[in-house]
């Protein structure tokens, strides 16, 4: 059994004739330790799939199994535990706390999980070792994005979900972040799922899933993914 299994997953927003079907019988599998990329045009349903996988939203139909359990049957308490214990999330819009420093923003994770990585080390790993005491507003957009990645990574989640993690980054910094994510898969057996418009990521992904109009239009497994250090855009 794969680590992640989507079976005929449907997600509708709204009801009746105004309902929008953002995910339309979506089925795919992702193995443990894979670096998977979900691609597709704007409105294709990528964030919808990521939110369902992260337990932040509930499917209208179908089954979502993660690590052997059908999370679509979870009640609210079980879903909260799943988000706390299993998932790390890098949001498109960072969601940093403006009144806390970089170090404090990352250290917050220690309130949720026992074995979180040291906040300073996590910030060092994303190239922000010299910015520990700065507030989000004192950092650039790309630095804020890296702060949010450090926060998610420091949680050492079994499953890391990233919505456009390189969107605000230049090629060199983006490559450094992708290398970090790839190492999490290769060295720690963590599973990483990235939603992106950046097709360069297909070269380093173990698995590529393409969505359009809420449907899967293509799925492929990359027989020889490149190392993140080898790509640029
Ligand atoms: N909370 C919501 N309420 C109503 N409709 C929604 C909601 N969230 C998403 N949608 C709709 O569902 C469809 C898929 O949206 P989604 O955000 O998943 O696309 P996406 O592929 O992530 O797009 P983008 O690349 O622009 O972020 C869109 O038509 C969107 O308008």
Automatic annotation (TrEMBL):
A molecular function (GO) term: ATP hydrolysis activity
Annotated Gene3D superfamilies: P-loop containing nucleotide triphosphate hydrolases
InterPro entries: AAA+_ATPase, ABC_transporter-like_ATP-bd, ABC_transporter-like_CS, MacB-like_ATP-bd, P-loop_NTPase
ATP-binding found in the keyword field: yes
GO cellular component: membrane protein complex
Keyword Transport appears in the UniProt entry: yes
SMART domains in alphabetical order: AAA (SM00382)
Family matches, as CDD domains: ABC_MJ0796_LolCDE_FtsE
Sorted UniProt keywords: ATP-binding, Nucleotide-binding, Transport
Residue ranges occupied by any ABC transporter domain in the UniProt entry: 4-233
Family as reported in the entry's similarity comment: Belongs to the ABC transporter superfamily.
Name of the protein: Putative ABC transport system ATP-binding protein
